[in-house]
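Per reviewer request, we include the raw input and output of the structure prediction for the construct analysed in the revised manuscript.
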Amino acid sequence: MRLIPRSLLLGIILLLYPSFSLLAMDRLPCAGAALAETFLPGAGFALSGSWDKALILGGARWATINQYSQAIKEAGYQEKADQIYVIRDYTETASQKNELEIYYNLPTWNANYYGSLAGDLWLISLSDLYANSCEQNNETYGYLAAPLQIGHFYDNWMFYPPILLALYSYQTFDQNSTANYYLGMGLSEGRLKQDAFSQYYLVGVGEEMFFRGVVQNWFFGLYGENFGLSKELSRHLAVWSGAAVFGAAHNGQGLSAAPGGAFFMGAYLGYSYQPSLDEFDLTTAIAIHAWWNILVTYAVLNHATFTETEKEVQVPLLNVAFQF
């Protein structure tokens, strides 16, 4: 489960993505397309001749960015995580359970939801352009459906340990934790449960296409081609380097994974993406990430209590953290 800080994610992309495309002069036009796509959704794909993606991905980004922009302008919008999430450790509670209180109103939830969708669509777009040198392709459409391609990963043992762990967490969540949602300004329990699937499904697609398909892949080439290391050593270093970047993109605020947990999860996903020197399996990595996010999210939602009110809720300033 994650809420990547957008400023940190933006920094990672702006610092790393240009170097991916500018390592070779023949990739300068693709770097220009990536830059155009970043600031004008659909433009990069249009420059590359991928009009279908300009319409579908670019159009989806325009729509979600517009919804996000409207939400953050509304009265009652709350940006700070410590105004939304309050977590009390079991050592401090009468119930002797970890207690999670979540305060959301409609504008704040809309900003969270549409901002998340827009950010992941951005990662998908940049990853598509990088992985295919801005040439037309249909691979991304397959990756968008990766969590549903059961025939691809059902016999891959790496898919099952995190999924079984998530299912165990789902069944035992209320033994150690309680979750209470306080919803204001017309936000409902049904809306949260409706949005959660699409939000965290897309998180799995966007983050894996970027952190494994781009970042880890780039490290693998860097260590082998530029530093002259063996392929096997390059593979291991790439997995852990990509995991380090993945961990740095999580700050542990709110429902975000803590950096340490994200780091080790990123390493597991890295080995599922490149289980051997010549095998790259982004579909399975996406499926693991997406279903993990979905199951853990619904473990919280389906064991929570909900209080709905039309009034804006005020909460004390607290620094909070939550893990996967």
